[in-house]
Write a structure and sequence with these properties.
By secondary structure, the chain is mainly β. Helix content is about 5%, strand content about 45%. A hairpin with a 2-residue loop joins strand 12 and strand 13. It is globular and about 55 Å long. It starts with a strand and ends with a strand.
Amino acid sequence: MQASYGLATAGSEQVSECRVGSLETVVRSLLLPVLPFLPACQISEAGPPLVVQRDSAGIEIVEATRPLWGDSSRWSIDPDPLVDLTLSGNGPRHEFHRLRDMKQRPDGSLVIADGSSQEVRVFSAAGEFLGSFGGRGDGPGEFRSLRRIENAGDTLLALARGRVTVVAHNLAVVGTFDIDPWAIDLHYLDGGRILPEVSRPVLPMDGLAGRVRRPEPLVLLDLEGTRIDSVGDMRGAEVYVFVRDGSYVGTAPHFFGKQSHVAARRGHILRGSSDTMQLEELDLSGNIVRILRIPDYPLDLSDARIASERDFVLDGFTPGHPLRGPFEAAPASDTRPAFTDILVDPSGAVWLELHRGETEQDQPEEWLVLDANGTWLGIVEMPARFRVAGITMDAVLGVREDALDVQHPQVLRLTRN
């Protein structure tokens, strides 16, 4: 077992938290003021350790106890866009509606999945339209329900309901394959592996009732859609199934219900359920190799907050609506979900989107950041009305809706101080 120790430096208010596993590590830690780049230690202001690390049955457990940044974020997002694809050109190619996803390709070009036109459009890093593929239909390269796009090296993957389209860098369609129709996202891993993320609804024939949280399988595919292996599962969305007199009535969300999310990081899989602020890192055989967690992260919910959420949702139903009754009777969790999305930037840092309830959707997105070693850096707030789609080393990709609800795919500058 390895332990973490605090090493005080003479005449300094700083503490070096060193992950000590050998005498060599201790010697290296003593050289920290001279060699600040050594990865064995982390510097923080005096106080409780930032990170506690231990091994348990071969699994590395990293617990972050407090944010390095304190109350103020040291990373910032400039709200003035570097690129705005709605304003960088004219005509229908620069008009977007029901935008589904946005990615940056390795050459810096920008790719947009537009749900209204069912097109994938490609723009230069400066916002010049370069080309597109897709359109509404059932033929090769056409879509009925375009959902996500994903980089797979120089290849682009486009996910629609029940099908993945594989596209070369020049936008030529090189293949398609069928996929689980309930796949909501794709994650590309090293070695040509794809991990679909599946969220399947609870249906009457499932024979379930009450609080339901069904597991969803995690299955690796190759770039031709061939199954490689199963790597376990994740806990599905928490819902409530109503049955009256033995008959299925309907399904309603569990207020502040929990859900699981996955992401790819350096050839591994990150898996986390929003019950707690914790992620599991799996290898490609499905073995847990590391756990990142923030113990006792506050997720408290008041009765007033729950009542406000329920009232807000019920206001969306007209009197007598068949779903109003199930939503009125739907239960609520005792705690709010910890996060609603996982993104990984090129440095290996993990970004967790903090949960916002339905009554909080007008508030800016906030993202909790863990560095590649599991240190809790702090929270980065996004500009108002901006929805994050991806993060690079120096930029955030996403879409902003203006006061007229016009969608603006944008690239915003990210400053890492």
